[in-house]
Amino acid sequence: MRDHPALPSRRRLLAAAGAAALLSACGEQEPKLRLHGIDLSQRPGFGGDFRLSDPDGRERTLSDFYGRAVLLFFGFTLCPDVCPTALTRAAQIRKLLGADGQRLQVLFVTLDPERDTPQVLRAYTQAFDPSFIGLSGSEQRIAETAKAFRVVYAKVPTGSTYTIDHSALSYVYDARGRLRMALRHEQSAAECVDDIRQIL
């Protein structure tokens, strides 16, 4: 029997009922973010968890930081400008957040494990803020982690040594461990705070 043209079709009713059940099962949808940066909330498979070591040799994963937002940045300690700028801004963000700054954990993932020893990483990150944590691992583990975040980087010979060219986004997880946004390198600390407050 065909559906009466004036009535909703059975197919439409079933689709609507299914959508309602799905929303009910998943809970309310996240409010849309209004960002200066890039909304990553609806990009499944982007980023995800990581498994890297802190300067004490302790393996760290995203679950270690549940309950706090996490700002993740990839770089190297001998970086002449991009990395110091990003970490200086991260320290400013924590200050501008006031009391909420305690709810933001900053993680710095080295792209240069050959030179960024645990001691070097610790001294570097703590020079910006004592709460910052440096993370490292094998070259393969770091490459896999960077690939998950679409981080582009490459060793570039300079005389008898090398530097590393790399992309410069900062990635932000919410307190439930969901990747929500990327902060552009050119954003001001105040703009970053506007973005991050939406997920705290």
UniProtKB/TrEMBL annotation:
<dbReference type="InterPro" id="IPR003782">
    <property type="entry name" value="SCO1/SenC"/>
</dbReference>
<keyword id="KW-0186">Copper</keyword>
<dbReference type="InterPro" id="IPR036249">
    <property type="entry name" value="Thioredoxin-like_sf"/>
</dbReference>
<comment type="similarity">
    <text>Belongs to the SCO1/2 family.</text>
</comment>
<dbReference type="Pfam" id="PF02630">
    <property type="entry name" value="SCO1-SenC"/>
</dbReference>
<dbReference type="InterPro" id="IPR013766">
    <property type="entry name" value="Thioredoxin_domain"/>
</dbReference>
<protein>
    <submittedName>
        <fullName>SCO family protein</fullName>
    </submittedName>
</protein>
<feature type="domain" description="Thioredoxin">
    <location>
        <begin position="41"/>
        <end position="200"/>
    </location>
</feature>
